[in-house]
Amino acid sequence: MQQFKVSGMSCGHCSRAVTQAIQALEPTARVEVDLAAGLVRVETSLEAERIEAAIREEGYQVEPA
In this structure, are residues 58 and 9 in contact, taking their beta carbons and an 8 Å threshold? Predict the structure, then answer.
């Protein structure tokens, strides 16, 4: 499972936006968002760079955790 530190997430909408952006690339990806910790965990075959790009496109800052 890959883990990313994401800045700027604060609500359920943020969580859904990040989840949907990742699942648009791979519909079967399992995404867990921890708003309090600012972490996103993803179980997927996608490369980290593609996941980071999808999260950035939603307007959030992201880095590997």
Answer: no
